[in-house]
Amino acid sequence: MNEVLLRARGRHGGPASLDEYRAAGGYAALPRALKEMKPEEMIAVVKDSGLRGRGGAGFPSGLKWSFVPSGDQWDGGPKYLMCNADEMEPGTFKDRVLIETNPHALIEGMILAGYGMGMTEGFIFIRREYFRQADGLEHAIQEARGAKLLGERIAGSGYSFDIHIHRSGGRYICGEETALLNAFEGKRATPRAKPPFPATRGLWARPTTVHNVETLACVPGIVEHGAQWFKGLAANPEGAGTKLYGGSGAVEDPKCVERPIGTTLRALLDEMGGVRGGKKLLGVIPGGASTAFLTPEHLDVPMDFTPLEKAGSRLGTGTFIAFSEDDCPVKGTLNLQRFFARESCGFCTPCRDGLPFGVWLLEQLESGQGTREHLDWIEDLYRDIGPNSFCAHAAGAAEPIKGLFRHFRPILEEHVSASGCPFAEKAEAVHA
Ligand SMILES: Cc1cc2nc3c(=O)[nH]c(=O)nc-3n(C[C@H](O)[C@H](O)[C@H](O)COP(=O)(O)O)c2cc1C
Ligand code: SF4
């Protein structure tokens, strides 16, 4: 398959330079688009393309752009584009790969998105630990400025736009779009009440659009080749575009690949060398830590938004974590719950106090102290925690637990009947 998002690569394994991106067709459509397309045409083509946000929720991107005030609805003041490169979800590393490989795709996508929504300034909010990646992006931004692709009157058009990098203070909640805006403004990173939505009242109370790295990098291809071309890239009829899929955990060759959206888990697993050590697959968490477990019976489900929802999970970030027959899904989930509990921003009680209690309950099971009552408590706790919390953090934390109870109840019960983890011996053998 021809790669779109990763179409340019640096010669020595580093990020593609401006020349390398241009040689792969990058920035080709930009001058024409800025001179000949009206902003509303840009929004229309993104709407028609069927692009859905790659940050986890899958919200239709063109629709999101249309919420930003324009024409008579706009007071003429600043509007901002915010690229969310916070990427702290366990198991997720696709935005890092994109930035490390093809940073100009993101920059070009931001210029076009900024033009479509009438914005003159964009920011990239990048995960604290992505030091090298932030430096690579800074270099790419300088290259683009030097070539008059950023700054005043881009590529000879009447449009001006610039991009600045902001390094995150380093918490998972900073990836939630309104907590991100608070963090950016120097406030405590807690989510804001919605409405008002960032589209009308975002950064410094001005209209703002927050987009994931991968979403923005899809835009140049759509503008260059059109909505139908983008739809035609998908592996399933209801999807649109390509997707950066990642695989980690019990796979032979963990990596990130760009494939048509809707590629099956079976095909992705095969490409990553199958399950480590030739073992059987027990299950996967398909899209980062806050999605529900799937099992081998779902191997042929297209990895796309709607099919995965029908299968009882979510595409999330599209980066799966595989569990082999030797890996305890309870222990794996406990590990994720420790992360979610630690990363609670503390603003609301069900999440702040409930997530640590969930960790304690799972620890009882793993350490052989678990009872049937504990199983009931876990199920009740995680059923109630999401709907009673302020943002999607707690609901996300509940997802793997829901999958655990749906697909691996016998394993949970075995933790009680065997007074401990039935996988412990296997794990010892693996690590011996
Ligand atoms: C706790 C939490 C963490 C999040 N972290 C990220 C993140 O690191 N990157 C991201 O793009 N979206 C993240 N999101 C989703 C964002 O709030 C938002 O939906 C997304 O950036 C919108 O971009 P999109 O429309 O391009 O998908 C997170 C959401 C929650 C609740
Ligand atoms: S759900 Fe958790 S992360 Fe979200 S606001 Fe409440 S305490 Fe903070």
Automatic annotation (TrEMBL):
Entry keyword Metal-binding: yes
Leader sequence segment: none
Superkingdom to which the source organism belongs: Bacteria
Cofactor: FMN; [4Fe-4S] cluster
GO terms (BP aspect): cellular respiration
SUPFAM superfamilies referenced in this protein's UniProt entry, alphabetically: Nqo1 FMN-binding domain-like, Nqo1 middle domain-like, Nqo1C-terminal domain-like
Domain NADH-ubiquinone oxidoreductase 51kDa subunit iron-sulphur binding: 330-375
Transmembrane segments: none
PANTHER family documented for this protein: NADH DEHYDROGENASE [UBIQUINONE] FLAVOPROTEIN 1, MITOCHONDRIAL, NADH-UBIQUINONE OXIDOREDUCTASE FLAVOPROTEIN 1 NDUFV1
Protein name, as recorded: NADH-quinone oxidoreductase subunit NuoF
Protein source organism: Eiseniibacteriota bacterium
Source lineage: Bacteria, Candidatus Eiseniibacteriota
